[in-house]
Design a protein that fits this description.
- The protein has about 220 residues and is an alpha+beta fold.
- It has three helices and ten strands.
- The strands form two sheets. An eight-stranded mixed sheet has the order 3-2-6-7-10-9-5-4, with no helix packed on it. Strands 1-8 form a two-stranded antiparallel ribbon.
- The longest helix has about 40 residues, at about 1-45.
């Protein structure tokens, strides 16, 4: 009788053991999946950035017609600047030696902080001394006096950009380049655990896209 009882319980024990193993691995899968999703959300941030949302006198609608009109007015704007003898009080400078770019940028609240005059600091930016912040700069590309980002398309991954700000020099390394539709909004995809420089301009030889360049801080040193 005892031998018979053991034979009857053995299949039941195996079934329970198999079920326990399945439940264990399923639970482990759920834990791992939730962890990876949380980790991804922590590291990578997507931000839909509305460009030129400030109501400045030179506010530019980011569409083809407005861009063409703006380029046509370049000489007029330049002449007006000369007539007014505006002295820009730049708070920092962007320098990319590979493409010969060396241009100052203004305080984010300056009335001249707009793409019709300067490299523009976008409203949702933070300055370089903000840990894990993002300095977002935009400018026109093309063939005009205010097309300061006309040669960005020549950059490649691992190229360097320098930013001077408050007696410090910040060295950034280009980590990502991607295009987005030209709608007036730009999706910023970057590592939120890094201090970042983002450059935005119209895509080379395209009327429908903009290109986003994501740089990550490599070194900070006293000037």
């Amino acid at each position: 009788m005892r031998m018979s009882t053991k034979k009857e319980k053995q299949p039941r024990t195996s079934t329970v053991l198999l079920f326990s193993i399945i439940v264990f691995f399923f639970g482990l899968y759920l834990i791992s999946y939730n962890y990876l999703v949380a980790k991804k959300d922590k590291i990578y941030s997507k931000m839909n950035l509305l460009l030129f949302e400030d109501e400045t006198p030179e506010k530019i609608d980011d569409n083809n017609q407005a861009n063409e009109q703006q380029i046509e007015k370049t000489e007029e704007v330049t002449e007006q600047i000369e007539q007014k003898k505006i002295s820009y009080n730049y708070i920092g400078k962007l320098q990319i030696d590979k493409i010969g770019l060396n241009k100052g940028f203004l305080d984010i609240n300056s009335p001249y902080n707009n793409v019709s005059r300067n490299v523009t600091v976008i409203k949702k930016s933070s300055y370089p001394d903000t840990e894990n912040g993002n300095l977002i700069l935009a400018a026109h590309s093309g063939n005009c006096a205010i097309c300061y980002f006309d040669k960005l398309y020549k950059l490649a991954l691992n190229d360097k950009a320098l930013v001077e700000y408050k007696n410090y020099k910040y060295t950034y390394i280009l980590k990502d380049i991607y295009n987005v539709p030209k709608t007036g909004e730009v999706e910023i995809r970057r590592n939120i655990d890094q201090t970042v420089l983002t450059l935005i301009t119209c895509t080379h030889e395209s009327d429908t896209e903009q290109t986003v360049y994501i740089f990550e801080l490599s070194k900070k040193e006293k000037k």
